[in-house]
Specification:
This protein has 304 residues and is mainly alpha-helical. It contains 15 helices and no strands. Helix 4 packs antiparallel against helix 7 and helix 7 runs antiparallel to helix 9.
Length: 304
């Protein structure tokens, strides 16, 4: 499936070509404008749209928040919109991209379509903004937030080699639980801790997190482990027979899979899978705590 958005202006492709050549990100010049567009939209949303929207619709609550909490509020507005956008894009690509549906084992590792590249670009633009906002607010968000943003951008950028684009959109669906996670936080700030709305949202949070990360995510992780293991065992003479055999493989020019690339992806994915199970346990604890906390603790949650 081709990228539904217009091709990048020539000057943007020219500016990003040296970066692409240096880092072997062959499809980056085709999607650099989408990376820039995503970063710009999220930056404006954080600095202009979210504050104005919040003052208008949540005037009493937003105006009473400490400056640090307002920063967190705006960040969560951006992450909520981004999660909805990237999940819609990913689901659309999974359902509508026939080239992706028909990819064989090797194409799942090295294959590329314009729609897959577009989805990667919007994710990369968000993570660049995330690095910016985490670096400038490390005292509020902590070093862990910055480390997560940098790691996410590095892994996402591998898709521009291209590498594992097939699985990139699958793992993008991890974000399905993010809106419910942010709503859980907003309920605390709006003095709705322990109410029916937060209870319903908490159930939705646990269900979407369990489904998108622990079930769907673990299944996709097993599949990518199997594909990578097969490609790593494949002799170089065999890879030459398929490297340039289809349109989706037009950017594939490596006869063997570099060990550093395979292990970087495997270690990162394994770590995230383990963390997902840990976070799910912590989420259960966090959600249930809202409904057994004494009143003074609920007031504290609203002010943090």
């Amino acid at each position: 499936m081709i990228d539904p958005l217009p091709r990048p202006p020539a000057f943007i492709s020219s500016l990003t070509q040296p970066i692409a050549d240096t880092l072997s990100l062959k499809t980056l010049p085709l999607h650099a404008h989408e990376v820039l567009l995503a970063f710009t939209v999220y930056y404006l949303m954080d600095t202009i749209l979210s504050p104005r929207f919040s003052v208008h619709f949540f005037s009493k609550t937003y105006s009473s928040l400490p400056p640090q909490t307002k920063i967190n509020w705006n960040i969560r507005v951006v992450s909520t919109i981004q999660a909805i956008l990237i999940c819609v894009l990913a689901l659309w690509v999974v359902v509508a991209d026939e080239e992706r549906k028909n990819m064989n084992l090797e194409e799942r590792i090295w294959g590329y379509t314009g729609a897959l590249g577009m989805t990667q670009a919007f994710a990369a633009g968000y993570f660049i903004w995330d690095i910016k906002i985490s670096a400038t607010n490390v005292g509020i968000l902590g070093w862990g937030s910055l480390a997560h943003a940098v790691s996410a951008l590095l892994i996402t950028s591998l898709g521009f080699r291209p590498f594992a684009n097939y699985y990139g959109v699958a793992f993008a669906l991890y974000a399905m639980s993010t809106p419910f996670l942010n709503l859980h936080w907003y309920f605390d700030k709006c003095n709705m801790t322990g109410g029916n709305a937060q209870l319903v949202n908490g159930i939705a949070l646990l269900v979407t997190f369990f489904g998108s990360r622990l079930v769907w995510g673990t299944y996709q992780s097993v599949k990518v482990y199997q594909d990578l293991a097969h490609v790593l065992r494949m002799p170089e003479s065999e890879t030459k027979s398929w490297l340039h055999g289809s349109e989706v493989m037009r950017f594939a020019d490596k006869q063997v899979l570099p060990l550093w690339l395979a292990y970087t992806y495997l270690v990162s994915n394994t770590l995230l899978t383990v963390l997902n199970f840990y976070w799910f346990w912590r989420m259960i604890e966090t959600v249930t705590k809202r409904f057994r906390s004494p009143q003074e603790n609920k007031a504290k949650l609203a002010s943090e």
